[in-house]
């Protein structure tokens, strides 16, 4: 079968207190999703390394059970755990086709209104 037909997109969103995983096909239809908070983990314990590897392992098992072998990874957000999660996906038996960082960066924005002087 063609590689494009057996590939999948994983979007990983890093928020300030949680990490969201979304698995979609190439058309953008969500196949499965997971987050650290959805596993009944509360507070600052959500960002610890064992919990991150637990949810990554759950997503990888879901992808393997569906029969997909090829990945496109999209990352969004600022966190120090990006590299560790990428290492975890690289050590799995899934083949990574591309890694894209879609972190939105502000570039000074719109011009502010002139201050009124009386």
TrEMBL record:
Q: Which organism is it from?
A: Sebdenia flabellata
Recorded coiled-coil stretches: none
* Record's protein name: Ribosomal protein S11
Q: Which Pfam families match?
A: Ribosomal_S11
Which biological processes are named by the entry's GO terms? translation
Q: What residue range is the signal peptide?
A: 1-22
One cellular component GO annotation, for this chain's record?
A: ribosome
> Which Gene3D superfamilies does the record associate with it?
Ribosomal protein S11 (3.30.420.80)
Superkingdom to which the source organism belongs:
Eukaryota
Give the protein family.
Belongs to the universal ribosomal protein uS11 family.
Q: Which UniProt keywords apply?
A: Mitochondrion, Ribonucleoprotein, Ribosomal protein, Signal
Q: Name one GO molecular function term.
A: structural constituent of ribosome
